[in-house]
Fold this sequence. Notes:
Layout: E1 2-10, H1 15-23, E2 34-41, E3 49-57, H2 60-67, H3 70-82, E4 88-97
Antiparallel strand pairs: 1-3, 1-4, 2-3
Amino acid sequence: MYIEMLTIIVKEGFSGTVASRFSQEAAVEKAPGFVDLSVLVKKARKGEEEIVVMIRWESEERWKEWELSEPHLEGHRKEREHGKPDFVLSSKSSVYEVKAVKLP
């Protein structure tokens, strides 16, 4: 299994906007090898808010196929055209290979 983690830092009050966007139906759900997508919002009392989007893939190969797919590339082209929303302070993407899993 392979996991992509997107970490997005936004201005206070905007985590719901980002979580809602990633909760909507999208092309990624139809991609071969897609397992699931989780949206995590870090508990914070005040200040910047952190959202982590975890996308699980069957394998690194399937993730790479998605990264090079036309629907994925088109999404990024549209994003560049419109620019990053001003409430997004930073974002980064990391990928992980799952080495161990424990089940109940």
